[in-house]
Fold this sequence. Notes:
- The structure holds two protein chains of two kinds.
- Chain A starts with 22 loop residues before the first helix and ends in a 9-residue tail after the last strand.
- Chain A is an alpha+beta fold.
- Chain A has two helices and seven strands.
- Chain B starts with a helix and ends with a strand.
- At the A-B interface, helix 1, strand 5 and strand 6 of A face helix 1, strand 9 and strand 10 of B.
Amino acid sequence: xxxxxxxxxxxxxxxxxxxxxxxxxxxxxxxxxxxxxxxxxxxxxxxxxxxxxxxxxxxxxxxxxxxxxxxxxxxxxxxxxxxxxxxxxxxxxxxxxxxxxxxxxxxxxxxxxxxxxxxxxxxxxxxxxxxxxxxxxxxxxxxxx
Amino acid sequence: xxxxxxxxxxxxxxxxxxxxxxxxxxxxxxxxxxxxxxxxxxxxxxxxxxxxxxxxxxxxxxxxxxxxxxxxxxxxxxxxxxxxxxxxxxxxxxxxxxxxxxxxxxxxxxxxxxxxxxxxxxxxxxxxxxxxxxxxxxxxxxxxxxxxxxxxxxxxxxxxxxxxxxxxxxxxxxxxxxxxxxxxxxxxxxxxxxxxxxxxxxxxxxxxxxxxxxxxxxxxxxxxxxxxxxxxxxx
Lengths: 145, 235
């Protein structure tokens, strides 16, 4: 160290000054904070993904079963569709249905008779069957043509 | 401390602080998204509040004042009818789609129908976020519906309307016939709000369809005329 950069005695008139903060310790603190922030962002991203409509495609599939009747109490014959997903089946003679490989999460099940449809919301869980029970099909009034 | 190590350490520290700041910004944006608040909305609110800030104001996407013909429309159900004296008076059964909005397939917008007058029949509908899929028409409709005695938001799928309605409100004593009304539907995210003459009458929420065009529909011997059709993008 050159002589001119040497500390003068004035610096020590109030005692020995505090040693400067260890920069490596400070750096370590920043890095821990950085890592913690990264983990929080990662968790938030995952939470957002879980809420997104596409999450179901990656979180497994389940099946949906049920039975549909007309308003007169007869077995309903028509199509069962999972909205937004390429899944559809025809009801059996007794009105029962089974839709396989339905992405997990909240799904919209639509019952169609060609003139109108009835919607049932269903929560599908991966690897499980969701029985929606008995549904009464109520088609909407079609306009007079 | 060794000579020459100080600048290197400071630089590294700066990068770390910038990364921290970046992660904090991303974190805030993700929290807002989880809470259902759109960052673009916040940006637009601020931009609109600034002097000369019009970057986020509504922009007209499609419009038809029905001064000429119906070349800007596609008939999907029934017949088209015709334009009379600057108004479109559809036949009693029709479903018409607006070509401009169908080709643009916008997401968030306000769809407006000015001077909409129902003279008789069971009502008319304004279609929005309509898509023509291989399985048929899909989208939503707002119904001005004296036949049901109220206002209705409905979902469409596989070419048919779906029951139960997304939202329905009875309007007892409402004067349905013979008066022109300005109808607006604000379609933003998964929320839809219908206004009649500037008054909110019904709201609904659904996330099945995120984009699509607009259209008009009549049924059950409806006699109605419409003055102006317009779609303005939101943000």
